## 1
Amino acid sequence: MSSDLDTDQPVMPEPEGPPDLPAVTPERVLAALALLVPIVAMLWVGSYDKLDPEAGGVPFFYWYQLLWVPVSAVFTVAAYLLINRDEKARRAARKAGGAR
Amino acid sequence: MNGVNVPALAVFVLFFALVTVMGFLASRWRRADNALHLDEWGLGGRSFGTWVTWFLLGGDLYTAYTFVAVPAAVYATGAAGFFAVPYTIVAYPLVFLFLPRLWSVSRVHGYVTPADFVRGRYGSKPLSLVVALTGILATMPYIALQLVGIQAVLDVLGVGGGENANWFVKDLPLFIAFGVLAAYTYSSGLRAPALIAFVKDALIYVVIIVAVIYIPIRLGGFGHIFDVAGEKFAAPKATGSLTVPENKQWTYATLALGSAMALFMYPHSVTGVLASKSRNTVRRNMAIMPAYSLMLGLLALLGFMAIAAGVGKGDKTFNTQLSVPQLFENMFPDWFTGVAFAAIGIGALVPAAIMSIAAANLFTRNVYKEYLKPDATPADETRVAKFVSLLVKVGALVFVLGMDKQAAINLQLLGGLWILQTFVAIVGGLFTRWFHHWALLAGWAAGMVYGTWKAYSIASPATKHFGGNSAEIPGIGEIGYIGLTAFVLNLLVSVALTLALRAAKAPESPDETRPADYGAESGDEEPRNAPEPVTAH
């Protein structure tokens, strides 16, 4: 039924990194939130599906979504910085704990 | 159609010649020692840094068809066509979560395609095969549509010959363009589109920026443009509106989300990502890619400008795909029309090259090496991939010439829906090994059948089948994107069957990846248990 390869395969993935750094850190939570904000804002179509107020002759519907392009980039940059910090901390912890 | 626009054509040909030379010279760019390895031809040596990747991905994802079709949709339907903007806004935060993991595990194990990853993760040949075939199937019509983009500009330039011309004369420019493309892709691999992407993207940026400043000034400002568009949509029997009708909001949101999820399932997107040199390169790109989205949004507004400029007004048979090329020709001086058309034409070549490389990689790695010649050397793989890239392009050409354009558009629509059905296996697999590979196979099949059947049964005024991409979502009652509904079905089937199979103690298969592989960065000094790239598994 099974080869010797799969007998000791874990079904669930092990947590990454050494045990002293939990899978959930403030950096990771904040990064996830930062990524979630633009997604929610864009999928909530009812919040921007209207013509007024206009900006420079462009109806709200259009300029609002265009504005979200750079705003989403700012959130993604924030997530990038947070995750970078988190990974640095993990690397440092792994070094201190001795790599596997 | 009016006569040949000579100055525009001259500029167009000039740029075309420039990128052709660049395409052939690209094989010398950053050349590695082992040119026979598939990593070299098919992934540019996995060496691209942040900026090269940015240009490459931008050139790859924002295709000529996008540039023609998005404003065409806005021209025809107004707000509903604008969904491309939230789609690209949602895409990058979404893929930020999983693409770095895909990059890392692919680097550690030498994976070249998403199907390679599925093979390694689930130890399942059939699952890997369906992921590969779905990828090839979804990519082929996409390549064909790039030709539609080139055809649109050639038509407006007056060298397309119109509908009545002899088919050979009509399509000769297309043959030349694709012959040249095939030749330099064959010789230079991914380096050719990477280098040409610089020219393409620079041209596109210049054209769009000029267009959104110059055209509104000539048309009397944005206020006037939207007034005219509003009048057009308010007319009796007109389709479209300036905002999304309330009963279409779900459609708008689900199309944006579903398309965003599908975007990085496409093999050509994955090729662009895996060609980057580090995990952080991928992340940084997710933060700077929105520059292209901004451009796409401005481009979409050109659809309204075409309305305001009276393009196609009163012409019942007007091909909406020509709205933006025609707008450019009406508005710009001839020489700049040439620049704009060169941007669209070259904009077709870059993605077509990357798509054919991606399809060739899939065939070579997941069909040829897996089933036909398991002991293939890297040199064999490269040879086969180069040959297949030619076949794929010939196939796309035959497709466009042999079938009607509606068929290509239908199939591209289905392509997005199909490729989305690989999401559970790929993205699920990046985070957990919980899913059983049989369950994933069943989920994929359920999503494919449901989505295709639903799409088939939609009629529109233009076509009896495949007349749209949205239908009622069972259980919610709103109209939503079929692809996303099929994805949810796929996920539910995968979860339910996994639970059942686990309860029945169905046999497991080996997983060659380790948790640490998913976080690996280039230059990590961790010991690697993987064999040399490409000879893996």
Note: Chain A touches chain B through 53 residues (CB under 8 Å).
## 2
Amino acid sequence: MSTAVGVASVALIVLLAVAAPLVAGYDPQSGSAAALQPPLSSGHTLGTDNLGRDIWAELVFGARVSLAVGVFAATSAVLIGTVIGAVAGYTGGWVDATLMRLAEFFQVVPRFVLALIVVALFGSGLAKLIVVIGLLAWPQTARLVRASFLSLREAPFVDAARVGGMGPTSIIVHEILPNVLAPILVTGSLDVASAILLEAGLGFFGLGDPNLVSWGSMLNQAQQYLRQAWWMSLFPGLAISVAVLSFNVLGDRLNDALNPRLRGA
Amino acid sequence: MTGQPLLDVRDLAVAIGRQADAPRVVDGVSLTVGRGEIVGLVGESGCGKSMSAFAIAGLFPTPAARVVQGSVLLAGRDLTTLDARARRATLGKDLGMVFQDPSSFLDPLMRVGDQVAESLRVRGQNSGAWTRVVELLALMELPEPRETARRYPHELSGGQRQRVLIAAALALQPSLLIADEPTTALDTTVQASILDLLLKLRRTLQLSVLLITHDLGVIAETCDRVYVMYAGRVVETNTTEQLFRAPRHPYTRGLLRGTLAVETQTADLFSIPGTVPDLRHMPSGCRFHPRCPLAIEVCVTRDPPLTARRDLSGADACWRAQEPAAAHVWEDVTWSR
Amino acid sequence: MQAVPLLLGVIVVNFLLIQLAPGDPTTVLVGDYPAPAEYVAQVRHDFGLDEPVPVRLASYLGQLAHGNLGYSFANRQSVAGLIGERLGSTLELTLTALVAATIAGILLGVLAAVKRGGAADGGAQVVSLAGFSVPEFWLGQILIVVFAVVLGWLPSQGNRSVRSTAQGLDAVLEALRYLLLPALALSFRYLALISRLTRASMLEVLNADYILAARARGAPERTVLFAHALRNAAAPIITVVGYNLGFIFAGSALIETVFGWPGIGRLLFDSVSKRDYPVLLGVLLLVSATVVLVNLITDVVHALIDPRVRYR
């Protein structure tokens, strides 16, 4: 898949999510029609679910949840990761060792199981999902930023800034960070993809925000109706796959385009 | 079997790429190696000498390279006409190969003995293979051959690794050994011992060796005859003795002057100014003319053929090699570094 | 990676979760289920819940050291017992999926690298893109719809028929019929991961000098690929497979739920809806311990393959 297709499908998902009330046609929360109508039945192109809710309406409103969780969780992961990675890489020594051990811990412990338990204990909700997923996804960014900082902190232009009397915070923010932005953007994009997947898994386990329709919770509903209504499973699953694929492709292509090795320090 | 050379390469050309006008790294090379003879192929890096060696073996490090012209007769059989399977059967059996960097040409995860035994085992000769390995390692003058066979490459020194590679190449007693810069990656004392080993193997096994090197010093110590290559062509050939005593091509003279400068440790380390030309932008006429202090108009327009001279042994490809001026070719050159 | 600090880290995280969860820690330790007052008092005492935090941590470690993962009132059984009963069927599913994905992924990756730009390479690219994007539990649902509902070829729920009287080979075949779909769904992501890694690793190794040297000895391509190239390409593959075993456990939780597979994942799902916290914490500990163990095994395997690691 090319960059253009990746960008276009991300744009389409964003557009549908923003314009959800306009394009949905139905209220995604209240069943207004007969239950379990197959796709292409009158007025319900993708059919209805077991409560008579329009699948298309649920999908476009579900996109809001997936995107919100994906983008905000990835953003917080990137922010946390950048701060931790910058501190570790710039400071070095035992601070670095401790922080990297912590990152290793979060990379090794199965994220889904940990997220599931935290949400089960602390209760669900959009904001909580974002915080939990963000808190679990930062190590990737942190390692990357740390590696760049390790190689850049001795670079001549950083030395020059240091001799020029620039403080560590200024050096980190103004001198080193701009050089790390490209790879951060790449992991950020891949983080969105994995956050969407993680949220879908939690939703499937019945741990999504109880007040919102999400793709994962639709698949949870679908599980009981696999014999009667395949469309309840097919469309939300496709939506998740396409969204995740789009962000993955975007990240891959960004990586090719912004290859940090091709960028001079 | 007298008179007929073991290896007879005629008009060999190698191109990089599939298209008809693909650039030729090797362009019309002919050479022979007699039985029990050590023949040198010398030139700067990028002049096509390694490619010639790979083309003779029919084995290229890059898939884009292919033989486009010429024949390679080994003991009278043309290797270029063989299919892949028959070609593979000759590798290790009729000709063995030794390469430049012994550390990267040994599989790091395999006991060196198993690598020496490989050419035996892939031909189903399993029984007695290990005994043969130990014999070979002893022949290569490796200490404690029995123990060494069980070691891994990282446990051996550079010189020991090269001995292992030579043993692996000779496991099936091929009559020809192609050695591509076998001593370049080694330090000087080890270099000398590996060259001594090659000389000994030639005596004891009647081995023929095609030795590829950029170092005329190596040639002087080991070779009976020499081919000098430049930009994909042979520009001069002669017996080692004659080549060193009376070089004719300005390129050979330049290489020799560089070698002498190193050996006598003169302050002015000489190397021929300029670089080997890019494949895609071959100079017209004599390919050496842009770097040659003797170049005149004919050198720019007409390509000199490799020509034998009356009263002289060997051959050269230079329009001006016979002129007295040629003897002083590099003397006035002040581009030395 | 060091095993002991990691395991301690998991235990501390578990402890923090118990302490920080809303409500009383006893709720977490007992579960949101009516339990006798004596038992609650017992838990308060065993875990030192009336003591200051450091003492609590010590008591918690003490209980774990005695193998006490708590008691599930929802199931009227000890957590260790519950997990133990289901460990076998989870291992059956995850190991099958992992082995299948590893074999198929390596073959696909080798083929893609050798015939670079060919059909297998294209297939490998599609598999790796799809494998990282399709949620495995949804893939499971679709497999059920196609192979169980529409075609009716394979069973969709459980790991054996309740009325089964099959013996010997028939019993094995029956087990395989139940195993096929969930293992397929679970293995897809690893197939993608492993084939992608194998391809990249093989492409690098095939350019190595020792490959040329092996060819120069007349070694046939089969020997070159499997005796030399794949062995050298294996190290990064093994590392990643090892690191991902924790994730295959997580994926298994979702897949077991989809296929009604009576394993630990299914237990996890049921415990979430029953708010049976002791089981959740027990499963987290078990999964983390498995990850640690697998990482140790990975290091050992690595050393077996690479003599340079062994002697270091």
Note: Chain C has a mean pLDDT of 84.
